[in-house]
Amino acid sequence: MSEESLPQGFSRHPLAWLAAYFIFGIIVRHFFETGFVAPLVVSIGLAMLAISWRTSARLALPVTFVLLGIVVHQVELSAVSENRIRRIYDEARIASNEPVEVEGVVIGSPESAYDGIFLLISADTLLFKDVAAQVTGRVRLFVPISDSRSADEFAQLDIRCGSLISAYCRLEREEEFQNPGVPSRIAMLDNQGIDAKATIKSPLLIEKLSDEQTLIPFEWLYDRRQNLIAEFNRDFSSQTAGVLIASLLGDKHFLDGRTAEVFRDGGTFHVLVISGLHITFIGGLAVWFVSLFSRRRILQFAIAAAFLWAYTLAVGAEVPVVRASLMFTVLLFSLILERRGSQLNAFGACVLMLLVWRPSDLFTPSFQLTAVSVGAIVGCAFPIVEKLRAIGRWMPTTTQPFPPNVSDRLRGLCELLYWNEAVWRIENARHIWSANLFKRSGRRILTAPNLQSLVAYIFEGALISLIVQIWMLPLVVIYFHRVSVSSIVLNLWVGFFLALESFAGVLAVVLGNISVWLAAPLIKLTELLNSAMMSVPSAFSDRGFAGFRLPAYSGHGRIVYLLYGIAIFFVAKQFFAWHPFDLRRTMWKLSMLIAPAAVVLLAVLIVQHPLSSPRADGKLRIHFLDVGQGDSALVVFPDGETMLIDGGGQPNLRDEDDTNFSPDAPRIGEAVVSEFLWEEGYSRIDYVVATHADADHMQGLSDVAKNFEIGKLMVGSTPVGDPEYKELMRVANKRGIPITTVRRGDAFSVSGVTLRVLNPITNLDPGSQNNSSIVMKIEFGSRSFLMTGDIERTTEANLVADGCEAIRVDVVKVPHHGSRTSSTDAFVDCTRPEIAVISVGRRSRFGHPHAEVVQRWRAAGVEIMKTGESGTITIETDGDAIRIQTFVP
Amino acid sequence: MRTKYSHKTVTVFSVFFLLALTLHHGCSAHKSQTFLHRDSPLDSVSPKAVNINTADANELQNIPGVGPVLAKKIIGHRDRYGPFRRPEDILIIDGISEKRFREFRGFILIK
Q1: I want to staple A314 with a disulfide (CB 3.0 to 4.6 A). Which of A80, A221, A420, A875 is the partner?
Q2: Tens of pLDDT along A827-875?
């Protein structure tokens, strides 16, 4: 039956279209205030119309679904109850970081991490200032476990799924690192379905009130998971254990930072997160296992689904896992029903269900990545693979008496992969007639049938992987700023070895319960498989051809991604409509090349990003970034050249001897500074200045040096013993970045802007790091800026001693985050700026900025601005007027 | 066919055997977990213990390890957020570490 025989307007996958309309509705509500009543009334009316008068359904149904999308999203947005924790904090009824006592029931099992335990609580009471209030919402609590004593104390609490606990902690729900391009912290919490989070200082601040009844199977599942985590950690090396725990048990907290980076670099990180790939694998395994016993498809489906959902619950039932499981279940169900073309329909059903459940998920990266990748597989990759198989396996039948109408080369390739001579011989013998088929001679190379199917598997894997990559290009560029061409190959490699490693690892742990001797060789094997899995991606990553980083278009430039999506849709549609056995059509028309050409053109535009960085407009701009406790400022010169002064960072609070494990935690240099630079559209920074080797200034620069092309790196002194300095030099040498030292008296000019170095006096490292910070005066027209690093009294005195004229400026970056070690009266008096910028976190561990320092600047009539409060502070001058913009209005 | 069938049976039985073993192991591990009771706040409190909800700055400094700065912080916290509900609650104050708390645990009480 071909497409043409269907009635006009009939679609084989109506649900996919309805899902698309529904999505459109949610988008409409996202951008426009629509209210609630009007769309609901109209959609009900139209639905009635469509039912009673069938011919109108073609127009009424789409409109109804658009309106339903609007309604559902509206309901979600307005249904946050008055006593929801989210609202209590958003309306500032309680401020973040105030001590509160939160009482609630533990959801799921406590999740162990290398340095503590995470608890997810469904809260019911909040006690603040001795007043208790009934609340709803979820909070995530982290309990750091620093020594065996606190581990014991936590164990004594015996907290498990369903325990009612009360914890005294400082709940937080607030933004952090507020810069363009840096994802909102509150939005990230909301995406995870968490209202607020807190770190509980000590297990002693937790009290267990009672145990509520939980279902025994759940408790058993959670127990098994906890035990398995402990057993993996006990039996394997930290890298192998981290990989196995993340990929099998869904707990990423044991993953080593460097390992994770290798996976990210090669575009294979998704295998370490329980995702569609896992769920497919586990579900497929379950189906295969059941199929050994029963050929009844419905039984296969029921048992596989039950097993899959048990697994989903055991690994914590996080939203992305539930999403993947639901998709798999529905797609499997559609296969059981065996309806032609139903996969895309089932996919539409999934999307509809997921969006009715949580409409705002549409705007989360996780949902988009899942939906687009599954869409690519179901809507494009599978149909293509099926058609290629049909071409390769063609033999004359009554429905398809003629060979496929495709080019010889394509037919040759397909026959090489799929033609099975043995099947043909049997088939040929069954008929009263006989035929000679002339298949490509090339297939003789792959005579062994196993070899042929192996090659076919690899080919299909690579093809599917390639198609998914092409579909996902805009998403990976926007969210990860990374293109990994090698991921097509690496995914196959990593997927194969991880599957083997998982089997070996699970078997080793299971056998380990019986006999240590039996398990020992398997543990060895698992380690071996792990190093095999890591070898190729590591080699790719080390040589720097695993992938590269790139900026995204922002603002109106985003339209490029939309156009790319539209072009991809049309290409997919062409492939979907392609009938290799249709004799009537001529294969290629010029008009068919428009969409593919558009995809290629737009892909080049996205990857090469020729238009992403802002155009030079003859103005000098300085962006002071909000990097929390730390410094980072981007100077954009009038001709568009760029200079980054410091890159933020976090001091390493862990012991130095613990170096073989570094947790996979987001770093300021990557998650804040690089994100900002990418959002601005840069892939190259012309000058990078490291004022001095404190972690909160220099650490982030290592990440910047990895992610961007750097013209020149400038340092003031060379403290070779300092770990942050060593790391920066290692990256700079590896990437071939020229390094120069600057000191007092150096001056250079960039596009009409003069930069004068006022400190350090010598490049030899003196005692105090802070006082040897690079101090730079930036002059443009009649305006000037003073960048001061962390200088303290001594250096300030030196600067003042050389005469106030040299440091009288319009804008000062206040030295040392407003610490009382700096900003002496003489210095304040001498510089006497209009504006003083303090680069400091909203809450500093060191109490920065100190009140007396702020007072000192204010008393001199200076306007104080803090990055922690204002987010990015941008000061712009044409050499005459000064204009200030802040990210937080 | 017969050999294939027996092969399948062996696989399946061995898988179930292993599953049963892990199940057994999981339950036994659960049962063998010892449950220790927390130190009751009353049995180890010194007669000189200070009531942190009513004590003034001078009295607070009778607690070992608490100086004027910490005493001021404790009173500040009490004034701002109300009385402490449990002795452990004092840990929330910046500057009181688990270690220090363990040292003066016996010298504080709540009334």
Answers
A1: A221
A2: 999 999 999 999 998 888 788 899 999 999 999 999 999 999 999 999 9
Q: What does DSSP say about strands A620-624 and A632-636: parallel, antiparallel, or unpaired?
A: antiparallel
Assess whether the previous peptide bond of A766 is cis (omega < 30° from 0): no
pLDDT for res B27:
36
Please answer yes or no on whether B77 and A99 come within 8 Å at the CB atom.
yes
Compute the distance between CA of residue A694 and CA of residue A668 in angstroms, rounded to an integer: 14
| Per-residue pLDDT, A451 | 81
Q: Following DSSP, what letter does each residue of A695-739 receive, concatenated? A: HHHHHHHHHHHHHSEEEEEEES---TT-HHHHHHHHHHHHTT--E
pLDDT in tens, A51-106: 777 666 667 778 888 888 888 888 888 878 889 999 999 999 999 999 999 999 98
Q: What is the pLDDT of residue B16?
A: 62
pLDDT tens column, A625-677: 999 999 999 999 999 999 999 999 886 554 444 456 677 888 899 999 999 99
SS (H, E, C) A106-167: EEEEEEEECCEEEEEEEEEEEEECCEEEECECEEEEEEECCCHHHHHHHHHHCCCCCEEEEE
Q: What is the mean pLDDT of residues A274-281?
A: 79
- B98/A201 touch (CB, cutoff 8 Å), yes or no: yes
Chain A interface mutation, best of B25, B93, B105, highest count of A Cβ atoms under 10 Å: B25
Beta bridge partners of A875: A622, A884
| Phi and psi angles of residue A195, each rounded to the nearest 5 degrees, phi first | -85, -40
Which residue is associated with the tokens 């003073």?
A: A786
Looking at residue B38, its pLDDT comes to 44
- Stretch A294-319: mean pLDDT, rounded? 82
When pLDDT is averaged across residues A500-507 and rounded to a whole number, the result is: 91
Residue range B55-81: mean pLDDT, rounded: 88
Position A519, amino acid: A
Q: Phi and psi (nearest 5°) for A211?
A: -110, 125
Scan for tokens 């700023």, then name that residue. Answer: A481
- Show the tokens assigned to A715: 């340092």
Contact A844, A637 (CB under 8 A): no
Q: Mean pLDDT over all residues of chain A?
A: 87
Q: Tell me the CA distances in angstroms from B105 to A253, A615, B37, B51, B99, one per residue in order.
A: 33, 64, 17, 12, 10
Q: Chain A contact for B80, CB < 8 A?
A: yes
Tell me the C-alpha distance between A103 and A121, whole Å: 8
Task: Name every residue whose Cβ is closer than 8 Å to that of residue A504 and which is 6 or more positions away in sequence.
Answer: A522, A525, A526, A529
Mark yes or no for CB contact B12/A223 under 8 Å. no
Contact across the interface for B92 and A99, Cβ inside 8 Å: yes
Single-letter code of the amino acid located at A881: A
Chain A interface includes B35 (CB < 8 A):
yes
Flag whether residue A168 sits within 8 Å of chain B, measured between CB atoms.
yes
A616 pLDDT exceeds 80?
Answer: yes
* pLDDT for the residue B2: 43
Q: Beta strands A632-636 and A739-741: pairing type?
A: unpaired
Confidence band of B24 (pLDDT split at 50, 70, 90): very low
Tell me the two tokens of residue A259. Answer: 């390992």
Q: Confirm or reject contact between A202 and chain B (CB < 8 A).
A: yes
Calpha distance A266→A269 (Å, rounded): 8
DSSP assignment letter at B33: -
Going by C-beta distance under 8 Å and a sequence separation of 6 or more, which residues neighbour residue A165? A103, A104, A105, A106, A119, A121, A157, A159, A206, A207, A208, A209
Angle formed by the axes of helices A487-512 and B2-32, to 10°? 70
Per-state percent for chain B, helix, strand, coil, to nearest 5: 60, 5, 40
Beta strands in A20-134 (DSSP E): 99-113, 116-128, 131-134
Long-range CB pairs of A30-35 (<8 Å, 24+ gap) are A30/A73, A30/A362, A30/A363, A34/A70, A34/A74, A35/A74
